[in-house]
């Protein structure tokens, strides 16, 4: 018997591009993010066709025991003084977790428990983020280049955007980022 060796899908670690398998892609534009940014006037003044982020995902089976794998590419930019971010979500099946791997760029992962408690994790190349169940999550690009993060999650998890219709409890703005940097300097 001669076993065959199959080449699995690949990720280019420097760019976050997926290859070697059928892909699904979705781009989210500024006009798709109504109600996401605090400064509604600044959001309305922006170009609705401007791409904020793109997700490419391996076209894999869904169902119990299956995993999805995808990469989010979040462009740099701001609406008012708030950084570009993903829509953010809880999982429809709240108990399901997720793992993010930072690939390129710099930013933050905003995590929020159901009780509204928040925390931030720095996302950068090589960072690993374990997102527990019962936790909403959002990527925020605080840098000048594209922020790319690889994600792996159970295909049964689903997305619940409606639970955050009032927004996350914490907003990351240029002022907040400056304050956080000052706190780090002062120890």
From TrEMBL:
- Please identify the protein, giving its name as recorded: glucose-6-phosphate isomerase
- By its UniProt entry, which InterPro entries does this protein fall under? G6P_isomerase_prok, RmlC-like_jellyroll, RmlC_Cupin_sf
Pathway-wise, it operates in:
Carbohydrate degradation; glycolysis; D-glyceraldehyde 3-phosphate and glycerone phosphate from D-glucose: step 2/4
Q: What class of enzyme is it?
A: isomerase
Provide this UniProt record's keywords sorted from A to Z. Answer: Gluconeogenesis, Glycolysis, Isomerase
Which EC number applies?
5.3.1.9
In what residue span(s) does the Glucose-6-phosphate isomerase prokaryote domain sit? 31-167
Q: Which GO terms describe its biological process?
A: gluconeogenesis; glycolytic process
Record-stated family: Belongs to the archaeal-type GPI family.
Write down the superkingdom of origin: Bacteria
Q: Which GO terms describe its molecular function?
A: glucose-6-phosphate isomerase activity
Reactions accelerated catalytically:
alpha-D-glucose 6-phosphate = beta-D-fructose 6-phosphate
């Amino acid at each position: 018997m001669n076993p065959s060796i199959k080449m699995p899908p690949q990720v280019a670690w420097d760019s976050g591009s997926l290859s070697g398998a059928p892909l699904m892609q979705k781009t989210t534009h500024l006009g798709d993010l109504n109600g996401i940014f605090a400064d509604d006037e600044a959001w309305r003044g922006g170009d609705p066709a401007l791409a904020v982020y793109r997700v490419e995902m391996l076209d894999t089976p869904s169902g119990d025991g299956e995993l999805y794998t995808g990469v989010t590419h979040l462009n740099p930019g701001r609406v008012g003084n708030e950084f570009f971010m993903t829509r953010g979500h809880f999982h429809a099946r709240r108990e399901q977790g997720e793992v993010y791997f930072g690939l390129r760029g710099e930013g933050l992962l905003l995590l929020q428990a159901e009780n509204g408690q928040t925390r931030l994790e720095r996302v950068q190349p090589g960072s690993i983020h374990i997102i527990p169940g019962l936790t909403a999550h959002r990527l925020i690009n605080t840098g000048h280049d594209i922020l790319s993060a690889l994600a792996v999650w159970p295909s049964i998890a689903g997305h619940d955007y409606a639970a955050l219709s009032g927004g996350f409890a914490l907003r990351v703005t240029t002022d907040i980022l400056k304050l956080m940097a000052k706190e780090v300097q002062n120890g």
